[in-house]
Structure formats: C-alpha cells, structure tokens
Write a structure and sequence with these properties.
Elements: H1 3-10, E1 20-21, E2 32-33, H2 46-76, E3 79-82, E4 89-92
Parallel strand pairs: 1-2
Antiparallel strand pairs: 3-4
Length: 93
C-alpha cells in the first residue's frame, strides 16, 4: 500500500486544522502543502521557485530520516548470496 493511499484512508482520524508537508505525489490533497509542479513548456516564476525551496528546506530532515529507516530495513533483511565456488546459497542476517 502506498503512503498516499494510507494517508487517504487515515486522514479522517486527524484534526481538521492540522496541515502537512508532502512531495509532488500529494498534489491535490486537501491537508497537504506540496511544491509547485513545473508546467509543460513553461518555467517557474521566481515566487514559485522560492516557495518550492522553502518547502524543500522544511522537508529535508524528514526525507533523510525516511532514507535511514529504509536503509536500516534493507540491512536487517535476509538476502541470499552465492557461495564462492559453490552452487548453493549462503544467507546473511
């Protein structure tokens, strides 16, 4: 399940006054402030560039934390490795 679907399923449990920051996947969601998406064959205005920069600077800490969680999760999973000179598999956990 995507995080956008999860948010949509759970947003009725949140305070109606609460607001969130999201990436471009959340464009159009009522409670989420998202960066501007660049229009086709057009450029951002200076105001749009500045607002995108401000949103990004507020979100970067959370994005780094998500990256750490995903990295830890990958490192904690078991995955097969081929043994040198052997057709069998070794497991690292």
């Amino acid at each position: 399940m995507s995080d956008r679907t999860l948010f949509r399923n759970k947003c009725q449990n949140l305070d109606a006054k609460q607001r969130f920051l999201g990436d471009k996947a959340y464009i159009g969601e009522e409670f989420i402030t998202t960066p501007y998406k660049k229009p086709r064959k057009a450029e951002f205005s200076e105001i749009q560039k500045q607002e995108n920069k401000e949103i990004s600077s507020r979100r970067i800490g959370v994005e780094h934390l998500i990256c750490r969680v995903k990295t830890f999760r990958v490192a904690s999973n078991r995955f097969p490795l081929a043994a040198h000179g052997d057709n069998g598999s070794m497991w690292i956990s």
